[in-house]
Amino acid sequence: MAVVRSLAEVFPVLLTAFIAVSAADPTCPSPCTCTDMYGELTVSCAGQGLTEIPPNIPTDVMWLNLKYNNITRITSNSFRGLQNLRGVDLAKNNINHISTSAFRDLQRLQTVDISVNQLSTLSEEVFNASITSARQEQRNFFVYMSDNPWNCDCGLKWLAEKLKTGSHHYSNRLITCNKPEYLSGKELENVPLDRLVCAPKLGADLNVNFMEVFNTVTPTPTSKPLLREPDKYRTDKMSFNIALGTAGAVIVIIVVGVKIHEFYKQKCSHRRQPVMEDLETLV
């Protein structure tokens, strides 16, 4: 009972001191709270409606909580100068892009949570530096990335290969395909690698010169490639050709008929002429 009473008396004092330390830190960015527990600085900016990561986070921060915000992009400058960072919680934002160099300088990073965001793809380079450092120092490094609308194409083939072999750095929990449609709802680690393909890009990124293709098919340099006409145009042209042919046939029939009529008329006139001459002789 004495121990319980002592704890009950001490707890309010500790809580007051804790709040005082948090509020008294002039380096803590608004509207975040900063707490130093056993020499490890934690900065919490959770649920503050942030659209980007605050630029003035203390450089000695070890644990950074940024969940439940509206952050959309992680740039190469988002964590600049935070070399002591051990963990970053970015879950439940609206992140749709992470720069390949966003975590490059975070050599002591141990855990990153990018779950429940709007990520459709992720470059293998994003966490390469952190993984390399962790292996060299023989410590853990892990990334949580569940519940994102992943586009399971060639851009995520590298991740599928790691998940299939039992990755020690990437969580396979709820890594579900959203696109393409024929893979929607399937777990990425269960998708055959030969189905993770990318559609050909059109426009400036297309590596195929269409004129070269046509010249290959048609060897004559001056010849023009035959392009398929639109269906409506082809139908109208066909109808015109049929009508023109029909009209021509009718004209030919009429001309032939007139010629035949003239021929028989002339022939009949020649036959009647001798008969009239005989009648005149008899008279």
Q: Report the CATH topology name of the domain at 2-148.
A: Leucine-rich repeat, LRR (right-handed beta-alpha superhelix)
Say how many strands there are.
10
Radius of gyration: 42 Å
Give the overall pLDDT as a whole number.
78
CATH secondary-structure class of the domain at 2-148: Alpha Beta
Summary tags:
disordered C terminus; elongated; alpha/beta; about 10% strand; Leucine-rich repeat, LRR (right-handed beta-alpha superhelix); about 280 residues; 10 strands
Protein described:
With 283 residues, this protein is an alpha/beta fold. The protein has helices spanning 2-24, 128-137, 157-164, 210-217, 231-282; strands spanning 33-37, 40-44, 61-65, 73-74, 87-89, 97-98, 111-113, 142-144, 150-151, 177-179. Strands 1-2-3-5-7-8 form a six-stranded mixed sheet. The protein has a two-stranded parallel ribbon with strand order 4-6. Strand 9, helix 3 and strand 10 (177-179) form a beta-alpha-beta unit. It is elongated, with a radius of gyration of 42 Å. One of its GO terms (cellular component) is plasma membrane. Residues 148-199 form the LRRCT domain.
